[in-house]
């Protein structure tokens, strides 16, 4: 029930967490407008970038705690791990990350990769949306668990070599998940991220390469512009959709368009 959208790349610094936060902000605005249900966020990156931006510090129950539990067939345990985001992000419910989450990469428990998927069963309603932020790690246990729990994936790609490699390796991992587990995971788009205002030769070349390699999956119409406001809102731990001005409008429109492309509640 509901859409479960992962923001994923296998390279850091390409706007992965920023894209996740932007989608959470856009989904929250839809909820405040009365056109969507509850907005959830799940942070699977041990660095906790999304957790911090949503104004959560020292959570009592984290993603690490949830994934360390042995569900023994019990489903819906994620409801116990949810905590409210800060007042600036009111209405958003979060499964927060912590540094200890990295320990789950060596978890040898049988069926670990399905633990998050089972934990989320029955938690989301039909009109609810859940945004995942994944770690930039190839083939890791946390990535596998998150992709098996997700229904859709957005791949942000800066128009440089890191963006190209991150998208390529993410697509390869997604194919492995599909083939190995029979999971019908949908790639929404490879989205140009942190795009500068003026064209550069490299950006143009990388964009053309991504379009030639991935066809319609490469969506330059969903490009996320590079604006200083994005870093300002991250530092202030506030949604970009709560800001005013040209930059806020451009960023908000980009994130909202990505949600629409993913078929999120509108």
TrEMBL record:
This is ParA family protein. InterPro entries: AAA_dom, DNA_Partitioning_ATPase, P-loop_NTPase. SUPFAM superfamilies: P-loop containing nucleoside triphosphate hydrolases. The keyword Ubl conjugation does not apply. Residues 3-186 form the AAA domain. Keywords: Plasmid. The keyword Oxidoreductase does not apply. It comes from Streptomyces erythrochromogenes. It comes from the Bacteria.
